[in-house]
Design brief:
heterodimer; A: alpha+beta; Ribosomal Protein S5, domain 2; 4 strands; globular; B: alpha/beta; TIM Barrel; 2 domains; 7-stranded parallel β-sheet; two-stranded antiparallel ribbon; 11 helices; 12% strand
């Protein structure tokens, strides 16, 4: 199961969260600003996964210069979609 | 992008959850506005959130989110009767209690976008009462419903201004959609100002300086208003003459309003 939120447009981030076979949290980030913010984005995504008590997932992020509030909002939307898919 | 919106000189920034957001993305947009307001990237005191209309399934969640932040106002689109205004006011009151917001302080800006809204505007103003600082007009939906052309909207806008002023409310004009044509925007602003409209919404940052220029008092107007107020203090008898013109109470009041608008201290 995979869900995607956000778009590949300036200031946004496209986040895809999918289930994987292990209990790990895999984070893949592709960003124009990798040198400046790559580490920060990874840390933020990992902390969000922990906050929402997710494991056994891969988070793939295509960052177009998103600020933290955008990343948080997109992550929350992905979690929502995951939940509703699980319930249905 | 929201982090940039405070830099363009607008009096307020409207974060839109309604027509600029597709049905599928309503929730994502709400989360985005929620996180942006919570993060402090925008000054909440300047933010107005346009929620979805009462006739959509989203308005309650939008309102709950918006009022969990101390924003300047909520803008309600397509208001057309007192029933929806009452329902909205009831939920606003309930949310003020939940969020420990002083009761009655949340501002609501109803947007009139259809013929029924114009017809029912007096009752809408009555129901919203003190919560309503101004009435907003939405021309695009109005034109779609009524087939009245843009050039003839001035008639409807004048009607809205007359009713709004009867209740002590200002009117904010609709956006001008062609953001490349600043001269046409300027003409529309002057026309709006001439019928008593107090300001205009912008759809693009480039439009803000034109709108501010037209709706803000000019330096000559401010100078003139200061002179009149000064003379009115000296002339306690009521009407007096200045530059060959009779100056009486309504003119003095208009001058006072000009100075208020300019941000000058008015005694």
């Amino acid at each position: 199961m995979a869900v995607t939120c956000g778009k590949n447009r300036k200031g946004d981030i496209s986040l895809t969260i999918e289930n994987i076979d292990s209990n790990d949290i895999e984070i893949i980030v592709e960003s124009k600003y990798e040198d400046l913010f790559g580490k920060h984005i990874r840390e933020l995504l990992r902390s969000l996964a922990t906050e929402y008590e997710l494991s056994g997932i891969r988070v793939t992020a295509i960052d177009m210069g998103a600020w933290d509030y955008t990343i948080r909002a997109r992550f929350k939307a992905c979690v929502d979609m995951l939940k509703s898919r699980c319930e249905s | 992008m929201l982090q940039k919106c405070g830099f363009y000189g607008a009096d307020a920034v409207i974060l839109d959850l309604e027509d600029s957001v597709s049905e599928e993305e309503k929730k994502q947009a709400r989360y985005l506005v929620d996180e942006a307001l919570g993060s402090g990237v925008v000054s909440k005191s300047d933010v107005v959130v346009r929620i979805n209309s009462f006739h959509s399934p989203f308005w309650k969640s939008d309102l709950e989110m918006a009022l969990s932040h101390q924003i300047a106002a909520v803008k309600i689109p397509k208001v057309q009767n007192t029933h929806e205004m009452k329902e909205i006011c009831n939920l606003v009151l309930e949310l003020e209690r939940i969020n420990n917001t002083p009761l009655g302080t949340t501002k609501i800006i109803p947007t009139i976008e259809n013929a029924m809204g114009v017809m029912r505007l007096p009752e809408i103003c009555e129901v919203g009462s003190e919560r309503i600082p101004c009435i907003s007009f939405g021309s695009e939906d109005f034109m779609t419903q009524t087939n009245i052309s843009r050039s003839k909207l001035v008639i409807v806008k004048t009607q809205i201004v007359t009713v709004a002023k009867a209740f002590g409310k200002d009117v904010i004009d609709s956006v001008f959609p062609d953001f490349h044509d600043l001269e046409a925007l300027r003409r529309e602003c002057f026309e709006a100002k001439s019928i008593g409209i107090s300001g205009k919404s912008a759809i693009h940052p480039d439009q803000i300086w034109v709108i501010n220029e037209v709706f803000s008092p000019s330096s000559d107007e401010i100078k003139h208003a200061k002179k009149i107020l000064e003379l009115s203090k000296q002339n306690k008898d009521g009407a007096f003459q200045y530059n060959g013109q009779m100056i009486d109470k309504p003119i003095v009041e208009r001058c006072r309003r000009i100075l208020q608008l300019s941000g000058d201290k008015v005694e």
